[in-house]
Specification:
Blueprint (H helix, E strand, L loop, with lengths): L2 H9 L6 H5 L3 E5 L2 E6 L2 E10 L6 E10 L2 E9 L8 E5 L8 E2 L1 E6 L2 E9 H9 L2 E6 L8 E6 L3 H8 L2
Length: 162
Amino acid sequence: MHALTKAALVALPLAAPVAAVAQEEQRETFGDWVLVCDGGQPCRLIQQQTERETGDLAVRMIALKVDGGAVLAAQMPMGVHLPSGAVYRLEVPEDEPQRQMVWQRCMDDICEAAIQLDERELELFGENDAILFAYRLTPQDEPRIMQVSLGGFLDGLERTGE
């Protein structure tokens, strides 16, 4: 099966509305990430960022360990400009190429994109403090760029596979 197809299949159960995340059963903090586990789903590593002015969701990053690496999903508010894509790049070095995430679905006020991370990409995550994640609301808008901390990411990711 093609790696992108695997990522899509694995990412589908990762979606969770904001209210549902707030009511999960078990939580453990790993740096800037929270491991969320409930009886019905695999444990997920989550980092959520909100708009300063409104408290609305800016991005929710969700990671789950899979054979050969991990799946990283990004959930954004409905209304993002899909053709502009959802991308990330490692914060350092600045000339690092960006990686294009694949749109999975839009549903219940959330649009989700995902990418499969292989072992080498996970090593690079461990060598960096953050990734820069971006999307556009309209084709004319400047990209919305968010710094997503990688503090605690690898330690927390290991726990998603338990």
